[in-house]
Amino acid sequence: MKSLAALLILGMIWAVGLLAFSGRVEQSTPAKEPPVADGVVVLTGASNIRLEAATKLLEAGKGKRLLISGVNREATREDVLNVTKAVKPIYDCCVDLGFAAANTVGNARETAEWARAKGYHSLIVVTADYHMPRAMLELRATLPDTVLYPYPVATEGLDAHRWWKQNATTRRMVVEYCKYLAILAREAFLGLGPKEEAGSPAGKAS
């Protein structure tokens, strides 16, 4: 009986968390005007809208350079130019393509390497609205000393207000929420471990 009650409580906590998560997604767009940062990074996905949004931020002077993380390895710079609809001189001078990332963890690593190589300390992060919470967790884990400004882009076909009315959007929201919880649990677990002393060789390397 106690086990059943515990399961019911856990289920209620999970459901409340899902509602809070979906509410956060719904309220995240349209994104607020971000401040000027050192760079802009966009995480690729199913829609090209986020690429266009990131390019507009670069063209508006919101960052010195743009990293497109997770580009298809078979795509050329010309292919990506056509997708972003960027102004060619700005694209040629200030857009970097990252081909190494295959998922959000890879996006975070690729972004961290790029930001450190450029000496950047602040970034505007562009990705889909439902993906932003998890992306920010991964990026904060790999770039703890970098200021990150989220710039979520509304997802085509995702009604974040009534997401439960369609199987596809329900599945997307639930799966993303579960992934988000998994990253939260991972970071909480890692946080229980010994802390590296600031300035130690290991700390500098990480």
From TrEMBL:
Q: Sorted alphabetically, which Pfam families does this protein's record hold?
A: DUF218
The chain positions of domain DUF218 read 38-177
Please give the start and end residues of each transmembrane region: none
Cited InterPro entries = Cell_Envelope_Assoc (IPR051599), DUF218 (IPR003848)
Give the UniProt record's GO annotations in the biological process aspect. Gram-negative-bacterium-type cell wall biogenesis; peptidoglycan metabolic process
For this record, an example GO cellular component is: plasma membrane
Q: PANTHER family, alphabetically?
A: ENVELOPE BIOGENESIS FACTOR ELYC, INNER MEMBRANE PROTEIN, PROBABLE PERMEASE
Instruction: Specify the protein name.
Output: DUF218 domain-containing protein
